[in-house]
Amino acid sequence: MERLTPDDVILDPSPIYSRADLCSIYKAKRRTMPSQDLCVKKMLISQENDANNMLSECISMASARHSNIIRLYSVYLDEKDYYRRYIYIFMEYFPEGDLDKLIVERSRKRDYWSQNELFEFAYQLISPLEFLQQNNISHRDIKPANILITNDRKTLKIADFGSSRCITTQTLSIIGTPIFLSPIVRKAYSESLLTGVLKLIHNPYKSDVFSLGLTFLNMASLRSVADLAVIPGLESKIEDRINNLPNEYFNFKLLIKSMLVVDENKRFDFIELLKNFQAICAIQYYDCSGCGNSFIITDFYRINNERMCRICVKTFDPFPSQKLICEKCKTIIDPTMQCDCTGDGNRCSWCKDLDHMNYSCLDNMSQSVRNQSYSISMVCSCGNLMNLHPDYFYFFCESCGYFCVGCGKKSNESNHEVCKFMQSYYYLIRRVT
């Protein structure tokens, strides 16, 4: 590491960032090399232990060389005034700014990244953090504002290691930005506001994984993650935010989901995350023709080269809102598919006819129409009694049109793919469920 002091650089008159007298960030130039721009971070140190720890951590960071970690050139402790000591950190300068500003800019334009772009950026951030973990260093303040952009917005670098720490114990002070804290740290932070105690036992790497997961969610949605700062109901809120991402992000959604596990004990650290990264990228997914959502292949029922997701099969309600009439006993069929003449028997939920175990609803309806034994009619909303059309297997009203036997909705007002699939294969599915 080089040995630089404030006298070795020329600071710009106005800081890039300033927070009272606690922290200021400047663009600067070396006196001996004016063509090279630097970034100088000036931090007020209130206690001697803080100064020693900061020096030690910066020295460790300077030795942690990685292509996606900002380069630290030097660190200097100014002790001219014992009561107002400052640490100066000399780093690379990035004129393209930080990820937070880029997200805001793209959000205004609704300019979403592709899944491939998101995975490229994800690797650029997971890889250096795994490298730091291998060297027993945690960042502890991961957020978009601490990720810098370079190479025409194609490369990300992790910055602002003012909160980083070489880990020798799991008992660590709470450092970080509240919105991007992991649940266990956020809870301790909230309690500390009442008790004044800023200590807890946690895994700092897994906390950093959660913070990076929130960063990825911020990138994918181009929306703030401030709504996830409240712990009650956090799991369902995270699930909703991830599910609301486009289907095109299927694999990236799996990555975010693996990082935003609320229970720290079940969450990856960076070493585990990087090991699983390629596998998550490579998972194949398919769109369900019923609900339109994407799932991995094991989430489907697959029969004769056709498939339907298990959620559609499980949650779809095949009982129509219109009244069903049994033509044999002239009574209304109730939601349990019973009428006066069924006795102890049952009706099929999908074709409404008497139960059939060994063949499909389509075969059953075809045979019933030929034998004129199909005994169900439906009352249309206009009052007409509708019978099964012999060609299309839909109830037909001359005034209102065709209505699906499965769900009761009009043929043109809904996606009937679930109905078609179940009428073809329900007799097989119920044997294994």
From TrEMBL:
Matches recorded under InterPro entries: Kinase-like_dom_sf, Prot_kinase_dom, Ser/Thr_kinase_AS
Domain Protein kinase: 11-280
Recorded GO MF terms: ATP binding; protein kinase activity
Top-rank lineage group of the source organism: Eukaryota
PROSITE patterns named in the record: PROTEIN_KINASE_DOM (PS50011), PROTEIN_KINASE_ST (PS00108)
Pfam families found in the cross-reference section: Pkinase
Protein name: Protein kinase domain-containing protein
